[in-house]
Amino acid sequence: MRALRAEAARAALVLRELAMPRSQPGEVVVKVSACGVCRTDLHLLDGELPMCRYPVTPGHEVVGTVVQGGRRFPAGARVGIPWLASTCGACEFCRAGRENLCERARFTGCHVDGGYAEYAVADERFCLPIPERYGDAEAAPLLCAGLIGYRSYSFAGDARTIGLYGFGAAAHLLAQVARAEGRRVFAFTRPGDSAGQRFALECGAHWAGSSGDEPPAPLDAAILFAPAGELVPAALRAVKKGGRVICGGIHMSDIPSFPYAWLWGERQIISVANLTRADGERFMEVASRVPLKTAARVYPLQSANEALRDLREGRLSGAAVLSP
2-143+274-323 — its CATH code? Predict the structure, then answer.
């Protein structure tokens, strides 16, 4: 089978011919129909995720059809393979229902080969059913942009006015969920990104501006998807007392120092790490109920490097998806 391999940090992906994967008990082999391209994949290629191994096949927003079935998902079932590949099930975090923090967790496209390939193998306990209303390319971004976005959103609690910093794959889905639940959404893009601001308004944002702009009203919560540490102080200044700044990325540049007065007033900064299977189940229920419009640009599998360049350089509205 064909697969795109990350063979070393700071190097382009290489197309290789690999043997077909074989499943072990409890696993399924999936014929990949679509795989989303995530900013986490850029961090992997840039060597910013030291827990990941090389060589590896990236990709953790995988949609496909089971060709070697298990007990939960028989052959012919359509499934999604997300970032969380497996956990130990025994550590203090797993026992407390916080498997996203498991010290021995393994991640798709990081520790185990992912979906930049024609076939992938996965532990069926960690796979997710895909709502029927979405096609394969539409569904792929749900498996990380949607899942991590929704987990970040859950930390906003009952916030009525939410700021989204970095309006890409995750934010364009989350804006639709928040709008459907009657919340106000303010979108913050790169300075001068008028196209991105128009896209945010099309996705349901009530206002869109640049990351340095003052929003039209104080925020109850801010969610940061852009991996830029300098946005943390900016978001703190935008949230009201008791507000929360939620950092949704797996990697971020250093946060610059800022006056304590910007944090004072019981404001909080919190990070979001990975996801749990319960997050996946909750979000897929929301996605089956709320008709999310996924903006996805589809690339052939062999054009993965082009898709990653477009993501890095901000040329995408929404998500990039690879199709074998």
Answer: 3.90.180.10
